[in-house]
Amino acid sequence: MLGIAAAVLFVISFLINAADITTNDVFSSVNLMLLGLALLALHVAGIGAGRPSRRR
Where does the chain cross the membrane (predicted)? Predict the structure, then answer.
């Protein structure tokens, strides 16, 4: 789920950068990209996974 959220943030960041839309400092394309990277790192770490892995 976090991987999908990261992909959405990357797309929004790309659209803001490609369309050269001026936004305030909070919603700049770099900040959205960093949030996407943080979500992607959490996804790779296994946090927010849909199903916990079962150990035997």
Answer: 28-50
Cα distances from 47 to residues 3, 28, 29, 56, in angstroms, run 10, 26, 25, 20
Q: pLDDT 10s digit of each residue in the chain, 56 long?
A: 788 888 888 898 888 888 888 878 777 888 888 888 988 988 888 887 666 667 66
What is the pTM assigned to this prediction? 0.72
Task: Output phi, psi for 49, to 5 deg.
Answer: -70, 150
Q: How would DSSP label each residue in 1-54?
A: -HHHHHHHHHHHHHHHHHTT----STT-HHHHHHHHHHHHHHHHHTTT-SSPPP
Structural domain harbouring 6 = 2-45
